[in-house]
């Protein structure tokens, strides 16, 4: 029976973690997605019509000479003393994901060939030059690329340049890029984005401030409801709980009008103030403080402590498990909040990480690996916060179970 229960729990755990696992694995894909990875990207296919090829490939100090051999079309290049070659157009490509440049070649005489790039600023840089001995048969050459050694703009490359020098003829075919897999470049690209770091900073400031506000103010209100006797106490607490049933879509309009009246739209205060106190936090802390012995308060009164000293030095340290639950719950909800930051901010400088992810595919070239890398980075702080509060949460659960 135990094996059956453990098997069911394992299956449920796998199902719950599967989307996160897929997101994480997709972050390391160079292009495409997890099931359609683009590991080999064709640069030039000489099988296309000549008119199309003229728009894609530019001859360098030579003519566009296409030959056909056994249903295979290739480019024949006349080697000269001055370098001649071809320059396939890349538009404005990022070459950071490329590991090798692969092409097929055959030559009747020894030649010198070199490979380089041209960026959108018309700057040309060659990264390899070598001697190729005579070989009448087709051979495949892989040229390793290290973009760290290039001084041109590797984020915006307009041309690949393959040039030869020597005598005779050189045949070239099947030019392709071999991408790195797995690659960490998607994470680097996201972090290099002009605003992604600001999104992380904004979410951190808002979430940490909201957590600190909830821990302090919710605990103070909960202390009053748990320990003090006053008129309409239960009615007021019922009103506080009833606000938990109000959808945030109902309160966003009054909140927006209020923030606009006091001039806080598109500021940190507009995102922090509505989250400083929550009814769930008050309810959670009140239920926990009620379980603490009242004799602790009476003993402190006898020793001359006032209400705030009792709250701060006695009840608050004893409420660490409940504070941990409240802290992680507030952090997760605030960090993942999309609705309020979207309405209460107007500039990109004040966007939080969730709004940034929602707008990422509209403001950037949309690729699944890059988006998944951004989502992975956005989820790391939540994992870190959970690991920090994990022991307190578990101790709170065990303590509640022992008391029960």
Shape: elongated
Query: How does CATH name the architecture of the largest domain?
Result: Orthogonal Bundle
| CATH secondary-structure class of the largest domain | Mainly Alpha
Domain module count: 3
**Cα distance, first to last residue?**
27 Å
Major beta-sheet overview: 6 strands, antiparallel
Uncertain runs with pLDDT below 50, 5 residues or more?
400-404
Global structural class: alpha+beta
Radius of gyration: 32 Å
Instruction: Compute the number of helices.
Output: 14
At the fourth level of CATH, the homologous superfamily of the largest domain is: MetI-like
Helix content: 40-55%
Q: In the CATH scheme, what's the topology name of the largest domain? A: MetI-like fold
User: How many beta-strand elements?
Assistant: 11
Series of secondary-structure elements, N-terminal to C-terminal:
HEHEEEEEEEEEEHHHHHHHHHHHH
Mean pLDDT: 89
Beta fraction: 15-25%
Features:
single chain; 404 residues; alpha+beta; Jelly Rolls; MetI-like fold; 3 domains; 14 helices; 50% helix; 22% strand; elongated; disordered C terminus
Concise summary:
The chain contains 14 helices and eleven strands.
């Amino acid at each position: 029976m135990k094996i059956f229960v453990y098997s069911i729990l394992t299956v449920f755990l796998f199902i719950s973690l599967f989307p996160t696992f897929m997101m994480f694995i997709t972050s390391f894909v160079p292009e495409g997605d997890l099931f359609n990875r683009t590991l080999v990207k064709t640069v030039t296919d000489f099988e296309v019509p000549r008119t199309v090829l003229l728009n894609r490939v530019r001859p360098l100090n030579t003519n566009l000479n296409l030959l056909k051999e056994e249903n295979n079309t290739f480019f024949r290049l006349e080697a000269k003393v001055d370098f001649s070659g071809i320059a396939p157009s890349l538009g404005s490509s990022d070459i950071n994901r490329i590991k090798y440049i692969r092409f097929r070649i055959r030559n009747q005489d020894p030649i010198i060939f070199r490979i380089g790039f041209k960026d959108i600023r018309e700057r040309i840089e060659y990264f390899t030059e070598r001697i190729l001995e005579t070989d009448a048969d087709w051979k495949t050459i892989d040229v390793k690329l290290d973009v760290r050694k290039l001084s041109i703009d590797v984020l915006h490359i307009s041309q690949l340049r393959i040039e030869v020098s020597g005598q005779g003829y050189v045949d070239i075919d099947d030019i392709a890029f071999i991408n790195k897999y797995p690659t960490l470049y998607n994470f680097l690209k996201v972090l290099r984005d002009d605003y992604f770091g600001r999104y992380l900073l904004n979410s951190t400031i808002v979430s940490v401030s909201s957590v600190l506000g909830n821990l302090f103010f919710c605990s103070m209100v909960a202390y009053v409801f748990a320990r003090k006797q006053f008129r309409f106490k239960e009615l007021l607490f019922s009103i506080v709980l009833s606000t938990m049933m109000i959808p945030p879509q109902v309160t966003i309009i009054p909140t927006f009008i209020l923030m606009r009246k006091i001039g806080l739209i598109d500021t940190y205060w507009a995102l922090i103030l509505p989250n400083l106190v929550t009814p769930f936090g008050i309810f959670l802390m009140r239920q926990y403080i009620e379980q603490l012995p009242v004799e602790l308060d009476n003993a402190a009164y006898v020793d001359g402590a006032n209400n705030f000293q009792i709250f701060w030095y006695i009840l608050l340290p004893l409420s660490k498990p409940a504070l941990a639950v409240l802290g992680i719950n507030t952090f997760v909800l605030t960090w993942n909040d999309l609705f309020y930051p979207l309405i209460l901010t107007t500039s990109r400088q004040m966007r939080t990480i969730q709004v940034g992810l929602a707008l990422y595919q509209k403001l950037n070239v949309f690729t699944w690996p890059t988006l998944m890398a951004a989502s992975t980075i956005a989820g790391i702080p939540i994992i870190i916060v959970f690991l920090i509060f994990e022991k307190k949460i578990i101790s709170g659960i065990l303590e509640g179970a022992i008391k029960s």
